[in-house]
Design brief:
With 296 residues, this protein is of the alpha+beta class. It contains ten helices and six strands, in the order αααββαβααβαββααα.
């Protein structure tokens, strides 16, 4: 009886709770009936394609998408990994004669010949004549080189050897004419330069260089056969004592043909300075590199 009396006292609250629950359930059913068809339609759209798809209600067609579609991205194709290979062995560089290396690489040189200034005429002295009749000419050198040459000639004569001067000092104008004649004979400046220097690049301009011959064998003047004469062999053995050296030996770095008749004086301070680069080139690769640096 006590329980019934308590229940009768709370009945208004119980009735209110039941009514509230019924309203919530009813509202839930309404909400479900509204949103559940939209989900089904959206599912059909995503799973079907083409004109046979189920038509959508107008309110769905005009509704903006909830999530923007992601852009399609292409998957990069990976190139197959190359199998590492050992580097190819380097072949040794071909052996080249010194003349072939330097002929076109000497700084400020022309066809392998170094530049030289023309000697002052007042410092030249005669060292003798060459030729006969109308072809006879007087040859000269700088007074320092001339004194050394005359002493060498006298000492050689005492040994039965006749050293004669063929060509000493030469002007740039004379050298230009000589080189032009050589071009006509050889066919090109490159070929001519192996036997003669272009104007402005001859050691003869300095007054410290000369061509010599053997007085007993004039037929070998300015020919490679001069190497066979007693005069050449005597100079090879003794010319250095008098301050002379062969300008263009075999396989010289400048690439000029072997000239057994062409010698230069290098003993005095002035002469040594004039031929410092050429002398260094002839002396070896290490000093030759330093000499080429001096020209730059």
């Amino acid at each position: 009886m006590k329980f019934l009396r308590s229940l009768s006292d709370r009945w208004p609250f119980i009735a209110l709770s039941l009514a509230t629950t019924a309203i919530v359930l009813w509202a839930g059913l309404i909400v479900r009936s509204v949103f559940e068809p939209q989900t089904a339609i959206q599912t059909n759209v995503s799973s079907s394609a083409g004109p046979s798809s189920t038509p959508l209600p107008s309110w769905i067609k005009t509704a903006p998408p909830l999530v923007a579609p992601l852009p399609q991205q292409s998957v990069p194709t990976l190139a197959p990994t190359a199998t590492p290979t050992a580097p190819a062995a380097k072949s040794p560089p071909p052996k080249v004669q010194p003349s072939a290396i330097s002929r076109n690489s000497l700084p400020q040189a022309r066809y392998g010949h170094l530049p030289y200034a023309e000697h002052l005429p007042e410092n030249l002295v005669s060292i003798g004549t060459y030729g006969q009749g109308s072809n006879q000419r007087t040859e000269s050198l700088d007074k320092e080189a001339a004194a050394a040459f005359e002493q060498m000639v006298a000492d050689a004569k005492a040994s039965g050897v006749r050293i004669i001067p063929i060509s000493g000092f030469r002007t740039i104008t004379d050298q230009e004419k000589l080189f032009e004649r050589q071009i006509k004979r050889q066919g090109s400046p490159e070929a001519a330069s192996r036997l003669s220097a272009p104007a402005g690049y001859s050691e003869h301009h300095t007054g410290y260089a000369l061509d010599v011959g053997d007085g007993n064998h004039p037929e070998k003047d300015l020919k490679f056969e001069f190497e066979e004469t007693a005069a050449y062999k005597w100079m090879v053995d003794r010319a250095q004592t008098y301050g002379f050296e062969l300008s263009f030996p075999n396989n010289n770095v400048q690439g000029v043909s072997f000239e057994p008749w062409h010698w230069r004086y290098v003993k005095s301070g002035r002469a040594a300075a004039i031929f410092s680069v050429a002398h260094a080139l002839q002396g070896g690769s290490a000093s030759g590199n330093a000499a080429m640096d001096d020209l730059q």
